[in-house]
């Protein structure tokens, strides 16, 4: 059926609108009705009140009018005034009108009667009484008039007046009644209005409830149904489906939707199941992928280790970890056959150590042949642990072989219960081959590293500074020696250093920056086959001289760099300098005596000279010639010694003999007194006599030369630290402290005024040093400027110390006084003989050949005794010395022994209280005996006192 | 009479020079080092100074340097030296010596040289 606007008729909205409209209409009608009713009620009441009032007014007017009438009538009656009559007539007229009006009003019966009487009165009065009265008046008949007046008219009037009065009263009552009624009515209306409102409200409530019920109920049903569908139940919406309104449509749609959802849900559930299946599959794949990924990662780590690790232990650990990850061994060990490199899992240290290096020979052979093999064995019951049944163990042996097929490393692994697949073994073998390569690589690296280290060590230990510079000028390599030479303090070491940097360094360092820089630059750029060199110097602290060689480095005929070798030639340079200085010195030293020789010869040849002159010149020439010879000899000596060609004729030698000989040699020195203090008990040394004499002569000669103002030169001999120590002490000009260390350098002479004058070759000390060193001794100098110089040298003793001496007087020495015996003797051989004897007994012998000097010395040195020869010289003989000693209080108590070839001179002996007089020859022991008695003697004739308990 | 001062630290050489130049009509004085020489030239005027180069204390050159300027005008200086190299000769002449003679020398030549110098 076609419904053009079904919703318009059936829709909830329309229903609602209709109900609302009806409600409004009902409400309006009710209100209107009520309003009209109230209005009309009010109007009727108003009318009633107005009519009452009108009636009251009319009644009043009527009363007034009557009264007027009577008033006018009496006026007329009294005065007969026509005007009064006219007014009376007017009043009568007015009264008539008023009556007419009154009659129109609704009148009660009584009123009607009153009205009728009034009408009668009016008629009567107008028509009968008044004309009669007028006539009476006109007639002046007042008696009739009075009679007429009292004929009843007054009754009516009185009646009327009472009526009006009554009426007035009644009107008031009526009005009050009406008012009361109005109020009552109003109260009624209010009540009705309230009831009406309540009614309408009730109606609205009912309607609203109805509407809401109709609307909400189905929605609730729908909600329940939705919830039900959501939870899977299905609820019948039969009632709702029937409805034709929106809810009906909604329910229909809802049902359709539910149906379609149900259909789709089924499809979805199917799809979902499929998806879940797929997901499971994916997850499976993913975990497989993850596993593969982990494996790959481990494999990568292994690969990395195989490729980059240079540490065997680390590599072995990496491989072991990987294999364990892949194959999941229970216990395993991997070790290298060499180098104590191993790693294990599930094994105690002890078993690991046992396994390493204790490979069964058969297994070894098998490993080399098969690379990998598996041994299956049943687990012995003890080893089963908690397992109830017996199971199998699979021992895997695998080897790493080097390229020559030799066993390098062994892998042993056990898996309990899980055999190895062929794939596993295959993989393992493949891996082992790769590991083998890795090991070889490490070995190669170690080899290379060793040789690199060796090279580095060689380069670093070379004395020459080596600097390898690339073709672009950057330093590629630099060794320690160069760093030391050019003071780079690691600044140029290590990384490559740019050309600019190191050239700048050289520029600031070297004394010849420009030359050196241009040398470097040219050498770097230019192609040259030969070796170039340049010298430069560094003047920081002590000057250093360096020679740098440049050599091009070629690779395939192309220059790839330059090697600079820096050689410290400071020593050579100094030697050069010294040699040229030597040449200069030699030239000067040679030319000076040569000048004399040449000059004087020429003078002799060209001039006529007196014989004395001639002799003097010839002597000078001779002297200068000797000087020349000495000079030349010195040069030759040093030359020979330097070149190692000097032959030493070593023989046992008594140094004191030699020393006395030296003293003797210098006995004729004018200003210098050379003497010997011999404190050495052991005097035998192994030496070349000639060379040792040379040393003595050099040193004593120097001592004399460098004490130009004369003085003592003391040669001392003593034993120090199992050596024989010789010192030569002078009282000369001394040597500045700073120069002492330079003294032994060849050609070195201290450059000061007094020394220049002294001359010499500057070779003496060098020669002496050379000789002493060759003898196994040392030489050194102590000196103070202006205070003199002492040169010491020592020599190893030649034989065992002398033994079997009868008396050792040094046992008696209290260490302060000393055991000095002075021998004043010009016969050297005798002096030597005596001093030998005395020294063998422990005395220190001071030898003098000059009595003057002897006396001076005696003043200074405490002496046990003085042995004096009488025949000493022209100036002063022995007796003179004795006298001098005895006359000087300081020396007067020193015991004196005379040793003379002359017969004893009793007189003098007594005179000087000589202790002993020996006539030569006498046995030397006698001398020592007598000296010992001096020592032991309590009666101190001498100044030597010994403690008693020390006596022997 | 021309005055000559011979300065040499070697006594023998001093003697040689003095003996060579004696009897030639000169007044000859000797000094054994630079200090003595300077002292002498300040006390007396000399026409010629024969000066050794290698001397202690003051070298020949130093002696020249210590000479008052006005004296250098009147005093001829003959430097005698054992340092015979050409370089030394140059240095010595540059430093203010007027003449130069190397050791060893011939006395005959020395006489000629001195006469030449003093007669100019």
Automatic annotation (TrEMBL), chain A:
Keywords: ATP-binding, Cell membrane, Coiled coil, Kinase, Membrane, Nucleotide-binding, Phosphoprotein, Transferase, Transmembrane, Transmembrane helix, Two-component regulatory system. It catalyses: ATP + protein L-histidine = ADP + protein N-phospho-L-histidine. It is an enzyme of class 2 (transferase). Its EC number is 2.7.13.3. The modification 4-aspartylphosphate is found at residue 869. Its main location: membrane. GO terms for molecular function: ATP binding; phosphorelay sensor kinase activity. The chain crosses the membrane at residues 20-38, 189-212. It is found in: Cell membrane. Residues 585-799 form the Histidine kinase domain. Residues 213-266 form the HAMP domain. Residues 261-302 form a coiled coil. It is a multi-pass membrane protein. GO terms for cellular component: plasma membrane. Residues 820-935 form the Response regulatory domain. PANTHER family: HYBRID SIGNAL TRANSDUCTION HISTIDINE KINASE C, TWO-COMPONENT HISTIDINE KINASE. This is histidine kinase.
TrEMBL record, chain B:
Keywords: DNA-binding, Phosphoprotein, Transcription, Transcription regulation, Two-component regulatory system. InterPro entries: CheY-like_superfamily (IPR011006), Sig_transdc_resp-reg_receiver (IPR001789), ST_Response_Regulator (IPR052048). GO terms for molecular function: DNA binding. Residues 3-118 form the Response regulatory domain. The keyword Kinase does not apply. The keyword Aminoacyl-tRNA synthetase does not apply. It comes from the Bacteria. GO terms for biological process: phosphorelay signal transduction system. The modification 4-aspartylphosphate is found at residue 52. PROSITE patterns: RESPONSE_REGULATORY. Gene3D superfamilies: 3.40.50.2300. This is Response regulator.
């Amino acid at each position: 059926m076609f419904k053009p606007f079904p919703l318009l008729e059936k829709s909830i909205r329309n229903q609602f609108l209709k109900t609302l409209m009806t409600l409004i209409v009902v409400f309006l009608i009710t209100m209107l009705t009520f309003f009209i009713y109230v209005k009309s009620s009010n109007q009727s009441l108003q009318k009633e009140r107005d009519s009452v009032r009108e009636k009251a007014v009319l009644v009043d007017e009527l009363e007034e009018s009557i009264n007027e009438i009577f008033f006018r009538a009496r006026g007329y009656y009294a005065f007969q005034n026509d005007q009064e009559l006219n007014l009376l007539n007017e009043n009568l007229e007015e009264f008539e009108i008023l009556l007419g009006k009154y009659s129109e009003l609704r009148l009660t019966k009584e009123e009607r009667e009153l009205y009728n009487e009034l009408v009668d009165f009016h008629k009567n009065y107008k028509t009968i009484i008044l004309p009669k009265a007028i006539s009476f008046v006109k007639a002046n008949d007042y008696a009739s008039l009075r009679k007429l007046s009292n004929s009843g008219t007054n009754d009516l009037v009185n009646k009327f007046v009472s009526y009006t009065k009554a009426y007035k009263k009644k009107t008031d009552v009526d009005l009050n009644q009406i008012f009361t009624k109005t109020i009552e009515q109003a109260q009624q209306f209010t009540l009705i209005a309230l009831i009406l409102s309540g009614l309408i409200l009730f109606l609205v409530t009912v309607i609203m409830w109805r509407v809401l019920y109709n609307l909400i109920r189905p929605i609730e049903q729908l909600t329940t149904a939705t919830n039900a569908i959501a939870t899977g139940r299905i609820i019948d919406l039969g009632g709702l489906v029937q409805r034709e309104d929106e809810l009906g449509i909604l329910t229909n749609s809802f049902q359709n939707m539910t149906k379609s959802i149900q259909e789709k849900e089924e499809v979805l559930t199917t799809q979902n199941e499929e998806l879940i299946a797929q997901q499971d599959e994916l997850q499976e794949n993913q975990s497989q992928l993850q596993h593969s990924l982990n494996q790959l990662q481990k494999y990568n780590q292994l690969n990395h280790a195989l490729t980059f690790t240079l540490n065997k232990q680390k590599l072995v650990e990496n491989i072991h970890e990987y294999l364990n990850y892949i194959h999941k061994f229970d216990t395993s060990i991997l070790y290298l056959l060499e180098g104590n490199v191993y790693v294990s899992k599930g094994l105690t240290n002890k078993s690991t150590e046992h396994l390493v290096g204790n490979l069964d020979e058969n297994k070894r052979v098998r490993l080399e042949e098969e690379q990998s093999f598996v041994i299956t064995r049943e687990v012995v019951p003890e080893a089963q642990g908690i397992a109830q049944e017996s199971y199998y163990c699979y021992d895997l042996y695998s080897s790493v072989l080097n390229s020559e097929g030799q066993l390098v490393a062994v892998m042993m692994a056990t898996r309990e219960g899980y055999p190895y697949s062929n794939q596993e073994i295959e993989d393992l073998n493949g891996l082992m081959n790769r590991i083998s390569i890795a090991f070889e690589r490490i070995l190669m690296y170690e080899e290379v590293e060793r040789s690199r280290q060796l090279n580095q060590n060689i380069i670093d230990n070379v004395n020459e500074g080596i600097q390898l510079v690339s073709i672009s000028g950057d330093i590629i390599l630099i060794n320690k020696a160069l760093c030391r030479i050019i003071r780079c303090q690691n600044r140029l070491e290590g990384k490559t250093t740019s050309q600019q940097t190191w050239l700048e360094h050289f520029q600031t360092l070297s004394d010849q920056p420009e030359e050196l820089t241009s040398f470097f630059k040219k050498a770097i750029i230019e192609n040259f086959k030969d070796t170039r060199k340049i010298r430069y110097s560094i003047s920081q602290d002590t000057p250093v001289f360096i020679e740098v060689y440049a050599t091009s480095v070629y690779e395939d005929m192309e220059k790839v760099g330059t090697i600079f070798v820096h050689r410290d030639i400071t020593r050579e340079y100094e030697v050069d300098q010294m040699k040229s200085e030597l040449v200069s010195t030699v030239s000067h030293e040679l030319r000076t005596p040569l000048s004399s020789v040449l000059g004087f010869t020429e003078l002799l040849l060209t001039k006529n000279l007196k014989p004395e002159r001639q002799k003097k010149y010839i002597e000078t020439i001779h002297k200068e010639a000797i000087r020349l010879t000495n000079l030349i000899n010195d040069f030759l000596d040093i030359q020979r010694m330097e070149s190692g060609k000097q032959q030493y004729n070593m023989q046992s030698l008594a140094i004191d003999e030699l020393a006395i000989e030296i003293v003797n040699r210098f006995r004729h020195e004018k200003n210098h007194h050379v003497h010997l203090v011999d404190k050495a008990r052991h005097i035998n040394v192994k030496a070349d006599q000639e060379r040792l004499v040379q040393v003595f002569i050099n040193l004593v000669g120097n001592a004399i030369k460098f004490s130009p103002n004369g003085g003592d030169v003391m040669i001392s001999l003593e034993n120090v630290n199992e050596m024989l120590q010789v010192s030569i002490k002078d009282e000369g000009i001394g040597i500045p402290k700073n120069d002492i260390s330079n003294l032994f350098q060849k050609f070195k002479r201290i450059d000061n005024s007094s020394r220049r004058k002294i001359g010499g070759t500057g070779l003496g000390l060098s020669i002496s040093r050379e000789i002493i060193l060759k003898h196994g001794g040392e030489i050194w100098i102590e000196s103070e400027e202006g205070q003199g110089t002492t040169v010491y040298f020592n020599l190893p003793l030649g034989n065992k110390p002398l033994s079997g001496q009868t008396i050792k007087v040094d046992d008696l020495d209290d260490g302060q006084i000393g055991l000095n015996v002075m021998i004043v003797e010009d016969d050297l051989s005798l002096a030597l003989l005596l001093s030998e004897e005395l020294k063998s007994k422990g005395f220190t012998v001071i030898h003098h050949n000059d009595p003057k000097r002897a006396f001076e010395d005696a003043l200074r040195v405490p002496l046990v005794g003085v042995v004096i020869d009488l025949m000493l010289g022209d100036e002063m003989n022995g007796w003179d010395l004795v006298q001098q000693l005895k006359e000087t209080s300081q020396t007067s108590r020193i015991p004196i022994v005379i040793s003379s070839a002359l017969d004893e001179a009793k007189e003098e002996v007594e005179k000087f209280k000589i202790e002993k007089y020996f006539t030569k020859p006498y046995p030397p022991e006698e001398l020592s005996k007598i000296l010992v008695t001096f020592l032991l003697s309590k009666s101190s004739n001498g100044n030597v006192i010994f403690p008693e308990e020390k006596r022997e | 009479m021309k005055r000559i001062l011979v300065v040499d630290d070697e006594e023998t050489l001093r003697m040689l020079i003095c003996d060579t130049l004696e009897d030639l009509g000169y007044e000859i004085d000797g000094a054994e080092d630079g200090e003595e020489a300077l002292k002498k030239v300040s006390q007396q005027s000399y026409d010629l100074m024969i000066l050794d180069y290698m001397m202690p204390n003051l070298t020949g050159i130093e002696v020249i340097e210590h000479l008052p300027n006005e004296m250098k005008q009147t005093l001829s200086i003959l430097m005698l030296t054992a340092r015979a190299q050409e370089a030394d000769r140059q240095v010595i002449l540059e430093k203010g010596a007027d003449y130069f003679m190397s050791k060893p020398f011939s006395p005959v030549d020395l006489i000629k040289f001195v006469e030449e110098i003093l007669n100019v």
